[in-house]
Write a structure and sequence with these properties.
The protein has helices at about 50-65, 85-90, 100-110, 150-180, 220-235, 250-255, 260-265, 275, and strands at about 15, 35-40, 65-75, 75, 95, 115-120, 185-190, 195, 210-215, 215-220, 290-295, 305-310. Helices cover about 30% and strands about 20% of the residues. The chain is globular, with a radius of gyration of 19 Å. The protein has one domain (about 20-310). Helix 4 crosses helix 5 (about 220-235). It is α/β, with parallel strands linked by helices. Bound molecules: 2-acetamido-2-deoxy-beta-D-glucopyranose (4 copies). One 2-acetamido-2-deoxy-beta-D-glucopyranose (NAG) binds near residues 245 and 246. InterPro entries: Cu_fist_DNA-bd_dom. This is Copper-fist domain-containing protein. One of its GO terms (molecular function) is DNA-binding transcription factor activity. Keywords: Signal.
C-alpha cells in the first residue's frame, strides 16, 4: 500500500480504542467545555446502530462535554483507490445506497445530541477546477500513469477538503447566530467506530493543542477550528494548494501543507520529526509525542483490525 493510500480506502472503518477513564475524574468544579462535533463525509457504516452507540458512549458520554452535533452525510460512495486510472475505473466503488440505508442514516443522525446542522447528500457532488490561469496545480492528467492525477482521485481529495469546509462554515454560522463559542471542535469521519471510551475532557489540553489523526479525526481548539477547517477548500478555490503536485502525502495536503496546517500553531497538527523515524505502533524513545496503534476494519461486522494505523497520543484515545 502506498503512503497515501490510507486516505483513499473507500470502505475503511476506523476503530478507536481507548483507556477506561471517566468524566467524574474531572471533578465537579470544572465546567464542561462546549464541543462542536462535526461528522462529515461518506456515511457508509453510519447507518449501523453500533457506530452511533460507539459515538454516544465512547465519545459523547466519555469525553463529557456539552455537545452540539453537525452532520454532513453523503449517501453514496464513488471512491477509488487504484494505482492508475484504469485501476481506478475497475475498482471504483459505486455504492448508491437504497432507501432503507438512507432511512437508517437519517434515524441514526437524529440519535446524536443537539443536532444543529444536518445535510443528507443524495446526489453526486462534482467539483470543478477553479480558473487557475497561471497555475498548473490543478491540472488533471489521466495519462500520467499514477492515480494521483486522475479525475477520480482529484474529486475525492477536493471532496475531503469540502467536508472540512462544510464543518467550518456550519460551526461559524452557528456561533454567529447563537453567540455560543465552542471551546473545542472534533471533526471525524462518519464511518469511524469509537470502540473504547475517550478520556474525559480534562485529560486534554484542548485550549492550546490540536491533534490530527490522518483524515479520521481532528480535535481542534475552538479558537482556530473554524479557520483551520475552512482553509483547505478556500486555498483550493484560490488556486493556492499544492494538491495535485507530485505524490505528496495526503496528510500534508489536507492537514499540514496547504490546508489546516497553516492555521494551526507551531506545535499543532505537526508531525514530531523524531517520530517519523520510528516504526508504526512501536513506542519510540526519541519521539516526544507517543503514538498508539489504531485498528481499521473494512466492513461492519468484521471484528478484527486489518490495517495498522497511528493515532497520536495527544489525541488521547
Ligand atoms: C445538549 O444541549 C443541552 C442544552 O444546551 C445541554 O444541556 C446538554 O448537555 C447537551 N447534550 C449533550 C449530550 O451534550
Ligand atoms: C451548551 O451548548 C449550547 C449550544 O450548543 C448552549 O446553548 C448552552 O448554553 C451550552 N451550555 C453551557 C452550560 O454552556
Ligand atoms: C480525465 O477523465 C475524466 C473522467 O473521464 C474526464 O472528465 C477528464 O476530462 C479527463 N481529463 C483529461 C485531462 O483528460
Ligand atoms: C515534483 O517532483 C520532481 C521530481 O522529484 C521535482 O523535480 C519537482 O520540483 C516536483 N514538483 C513540484 C511542483 O513539487
Amino acid at each position: 500500500m502506498t503512503s497515501w493510500a490510507w486516505a483513499l480506502l473507500p470502505v475503511a472503518l476506523g476503530i478507536i480504542n481507548g483507556p477506561l477513564t471517566s468524566v467524574t475524574q474531572c471533578g465537579g468544579a470544572t465546567v464542561p467545555p462546549n464541543l462542536a462535533l462535526c461528522l462529515a463525509g461518506h456515511a457508509r457504516t453510519f447507518g449501523d446502530p453500533r457506530v452511533v452507540d460507539g459515538l454516544l458512549t465512547n465519545l459523547v458520554a466519555s469525553f463529557g462535554a456539552n455537545v452540539t452535533t453537525f452532520l454532513y452525510l453523503k449517501l453514496h460512495d464513488h471512491s477509488t483507490k487504484g494505482k492508475d486510472r484504469l485501476e481506478n475505473l475497475k475498482l471504483a466503488v459505486d455504492m448508491r445506497v437504497g432507501d432503507k440505508h438512507k432511512e437508517d442514516v437519517r434515524r441514526m443522525a437524529h440519535r446524536m445530541p443537539n443536532v444543529s446542522g444536518l445535510a443528507l447528500i443524495e446526489d453526486d457532488v462534482v467539483f470543478r477546477q477553479p480558473p487557475c490561469q497561471k497555475s498548473r496545480e490543478f491540472r488533471v492528467d489521466n495519462k500520467s500513469g499514477t492515480a494521483w492525477r486522475t479525475e477520480e482521485t482529484w474529486q475525492m481529495l477536493v471532496g475531503q477538503l469540502y467536508n472540512q469546509y462544510w464543518c467550518g462554515v456550519s460551526i461559524e454560522q452557528y456561533e454567529r447566530d447563537t453567540g455560543v463559542k465552542f471551546d473545542v471542535v472534533i471533526k471525524s469521519r462518519p464511518d469511524v467506530t469509537f470502540a473504547g471510551p475517550a478520556p474525559p475532557y480534562c485529560a486534554f489540553d484542548y485550549d492550546t493543542k490540536a491533534c490530527t489523526a490522518r483524515d479520521w479525526l481532528f480535535m481542534l481548539p475552538g479558537s482556530v477550528a473554524v479557520k483551520a477547517l475552512k482553509r483547505g477548500y478556500e486555498e483550493f478555490e484560490m488556486c493556492r494548494t499544492i494538491m495535485n503536485r507530485n505524490k505528496t502525502k495526503i496528510a500534508e495536503i489536507i492537514v499540514r501543507a496547504s490546508g489546516m496546517g497553516k492555521e494551526l500553531k507551531e506545535d499543532m497538527g505537526r508531525p514530531d520529526e523524531a517520530c517519523q523515524k520510528c516504526k508504526k505502533g512501536i513506542i519510540c524513545p526519541l519521539c516526544r509525542r507517543k503514538d498508539t496503534p489504531l485498528k481499521l476494519i473494512r466492513r461492519p461486522g468484521v471484528p478484527s483490525g486489518s490495517l495498522p494505523g497511528i493515532l497520536p497520543r495527544h489525541c488521547g484515545f
